[in-house]
Amino acid sequence: MFDGRSLFQLTAERCRDLDGFQSLTIVTSARYEAVVRAQLSDMGMSYRLLLEPEGRDSAPAVACAVMQIDRSQKQATVVLLAADHYVPDCAHFVDDIDHAARAAQDGSIVLLGIKPSHASSAYGYIQPGEQSQSSLRKKDDQTRVKPVMDFKEKPDTETATDYIRNGYLWNSGNFIATTATMLSEFAEHAPKIYALAETVLDDALVLDNGLAMGERFLTMPRISIDYAIMEKTALAEVLPSDLNWSDLGAWDAVRDSLPRDSDGNAIRGDAILNACHGCLVHSDDRQIVVCSELKDVGVIVEPDAILVVNLNAAQSVKNVVNELSKRGRQEESKWVGPGFDVTSFLHKMRTWLPVTALPVWTTLGIDHTTGLWRESIEQDGSPTHSPVRARVQGRQNTVLGAAARQGWQGPWQPLLERALESADSTYAGPDGLYVTLVASNGGALDSSKLVYDQTFRLLALANIPESLFETLQAQQRARTLMDTITSHFAGGKNGVSQLSEAGEYPKAANPMMHLFEACLEWLERDDPDGYWKSKCQEIADLAVDVLFAENDPCIREFFEEDWSRRTDSAGDILDPGHQFEWAWLLARWSALSGDERAVEVAKALHDTGLDKVHPQTGAVPLSVNTKTNEYAPQYRFWSQLERVKASLYLVDMTDGESAVHYRDDAVLALKVMAQYLDTPIDGLWYDSMRADGSFEQGPSPASTFYHIAGALAQMRATGPRLIEALQDASQGRPA
Question: In terms of Cα–Cα distance, which of 272, 242, 277, 274 is closest to 262?
Fold first, then answer.
């Protein structure tokens, strides 16, 4: 909206003229890395990135940023700025920040307090006191700085009027302090964040000009810097400023920031306004907007929606967004509603993979320069350029190979041949094992080797179509890889169950589970001498006899070296999605081998996972701490898909009341599955649901595709029986 530049670019530009400016540190989501780099590429500014795997509010972000700056430059002065604030007077901004920075040298945290132009309910307020101690010690321009007496949350208009009358200031959210001051305050008032920040930075993946913070960042408390530090510290001071400033958090603020005509209207796009006053029209030139005799009304036209809002109540738009989220989940979804029809969904999904999803992912989801699959695709259809894990290559090659075996007529052969070759040349070391992570251009970023990653290479080889199976020597390559896995990860001991994973917890169930999956795939595909059956037998025995116990009917995530349950907090972690996944695998093994113990354990694991389902949304949580009963606030798509696979498979293995039990759960699981697929672009999916049933608006991860393909295969196999059972139930006949 402003001279063809984004607010982020304008914010970066304002920093250039600050006294002593050295570098920008930008904390943002990992999915915005390419956008940030592109927008800074032609600005000629030094910068470093701190990429978050997920937003945890501002306190964790600030702690990590300040600590990282302090590691490279002790006693630096940091200025915290939001990327979306509008400040047209750059010279005034620079002058204010320079004053605040000099005051901060005395050990205070100086906030920028804006003198209000009107009684706004959109901002928090600061009550300034008399002259600060730092001001009394100085004779220069620091006398502008005042102590902070109190912070006030966003008030109603009447209260805001009283605040202004009593000299309160808007809280801009911008503050200035030395790294030593900020770190000392974190250590005192938010010690958990302080300690975790050190670990997060130590474990972060090093990138060009930055760090990608890993999964430990997700353990950070979700809290703002205001609550964590600013409302507790005794060091807060405020610099009153009459800067022209706006946090463009609502459409009235956008109107007030744009040029306006003689009637106070702000217009962007093709519009005609007749007798209108104080209005905002924001549109493109594809359609004309006509308004007549309106006052203080905003008309926002986007390709997929139109918003008409009273600009005097623009903050209320968040209520509308919440309502849309609810309706998108319950009433207005393309597939899901009170009358959700399982039969229609099953029929619709028969063509989803070949007609809808594969064309999207084989064009946008693969880097045709390197031949490597991408990590994800944004919800607007743009491909991401983040580092790529080895497991994604194996999973995506599995999907493509399986689709070709099922008769997909797309250009699978050249894509698959190149993708397999690119994966081998990029990830495989001299020992034949894959490294974990490479950059989007193919350079290695993490050279560690995991059992987990090798299993998906085995799975991909098992799904090579018949026409290439012998040409690519799939069986020989798979056996060589399996033998290499055993020799490398078993520490010289014999047997698959002796494998240890690299990392903090060397005995983990998850790598064994996926190895079981790959071996089962080979057992079903090509096992003339029982090689793969013996591997399956060993893992099934481990799962049934050791990892599972009747008095603790689940398979936990982490174990001691002898596969006994850990006694620390790691031993309390239960992943409900993995209970369903183990259930599906053990039920398959039982069907192939006749092992009755395996199917009984599968049923128990299914019901343990079902017991952890969210009662309102019906979704499977990511993990549960069984000691504290704490649920992870994420409901990942892959977990729902494993529930679909397990419940459908058990429908086929049971009769009578048991079949009804799994049939009913399959219906609910399919209904939840449909919600994740209800995206703006068909062929994509949402990755994570919140506890209120709304979705995180992030990219579609490629790693989920193989879970979807597995669920679709199970739907094709069991769908006819499920439909028949539902029809029987509707007519009163026994299932």
Answer: 277
Among 427, 478, 487, 479, CA closest to 453? 427
| Confidence check: pLDDT of 192 > 70 | yes
pLDDT value for 469: 95
Q: Are 147 and 203 in contact (CB under 8 A)?
A: no
The DSSP string of 443-508 is -EEE----HHHHHHHHHHHHT--HHHHTTTTHHHHHHHHHHHHHHHHTTT--SGGG---SSS-SEE
Assign 618 to helix, strand or coil: coil
Please list, in sequence order, all residues whose beta carbon lies within 8 angstroms of the beta carbon of residue 3, skipping any fewer than 6 positions away. none
Q: What is the pLDDT of residues 487-537, one digit of tens each?
A: 999 876 778 888 999 877 889 999 999 999 999 999 999 999 999 999 999
Question: 557 with 508: CB under 8 angstroms?
Answer: yes
Q: How many domains does the chain have?
A: 3
Q: What is the dihedral of CA 663, 704, 452, 714, to 10 degrees?
A: 30
pLDDT band of residue 327 (cuts 50, 70, 90) is low
Q: What phi-psi label fits residue 210: left (phi over 0), alpha (psi between -120 and 50 degrees) or beta?
A: left
**Structural domain contains residue 381:** no
Residues in Cβ contact with 680 at an 8 Å cutoff, skipping those fewer than 6 apart = 304, 379, 380
- Residue 30 counted as domain residue: yes
**Hey, is 75 helix, strand or coil?**
coil
The CATH number given to whatever domain includes residue 525 is 1.50.10.10
> Which residue from 715, 630, 706, 617 is spatially nearest to 668, judged by alpha carbons?
617
Residues 682 and 586 in one domain: yes
Domain of residue 282: give its range.
Answer: 253-330
Whether 590 is covered by a domain: the verdict is yes
Beta strands in 132-197, from DSSP E residues, in sequence order: 146-152, 169-178
Average model confidence (pLDDT) across the chain: 88
Residues 23/15, Cβ–Cβ less than 8 Å: no
Give 496-500's long-range contacts (Cβ < 8 A, gap of 24+).
496/535, 496/538, 496/539, 496/542, 497/538, 497/539, 497/541, 497/542, 497/546, 497/563, 499/451, 500/561
Q: State the CB neighbour count (10 A cutoff) for residue 214.
A: 14
pTM of the model: 0.58
Tokens of 501: 């994973």
